[in-house]
Amino acid sequence: MEEKTCPHCQKVYSWKKGLDRHLQECVGNLAFPDSHSGYQCALDRIGKLPVKVPPKKKFKCPQCPRRYQWKSTMLRHIRTECGFSPQFQCPYCPQRTIRKDNLVMHINRKHGPGMLNFT
């Protein structure tokens, strides 16, 4: 049986499952230097998970510093959010939101799904 070694701390495991658990619990997704690509996810070093790369937010709102991954989301932000004050008032508490879907989510989370009976 081939021994498995942690690329971070050199701890040796008899079973791949033990090494996998060690990497998930102790190391998580720490980035390790890699000679080819700069940095790489610890779990990718043993071929378990792909490298986790944050999404590129290439669409910037021209009116504020917010950035978006999708152009449609940025356009919705400009059309309904940017520069607007919150217009949707929660009927159960002082919470106000800019978008109605965020108000619905707030009511479901804070007041319970049965409390959505409002106009």
Automatic annotation (TrEMBL):
GO molecular function, one term: RNA polymerase II cis-regulatory region sequence-specific DNA binding
GO cellular component, one term: nucleus
PROSITE patterns: ZINC_FINGER_C2H2_2
Keywords: DNA-binding, Metal-binding, Nucleus, Repeat, Zinc, Zinc-finger
Highest taxon above the source species: Eukaryota
SMART domains: ZnF_C2H2 (SM00355)
GO BP, sorted A to Z: regulation of transcription by RNA polymerase II
Keyword Metal-binding: yes
Occurrences of domain C2H2-type (ranges): 59-86
Coarse class of the protein's main subcellular location: nucleus
Keyword field contains DNA-binding: yes
Subcellular location: Nucleus
Protein name listed in UniProt: Zinc finger protein 75A-like
Species the sequence originates in: Frankliniella occidentalis (Western flower thrips)
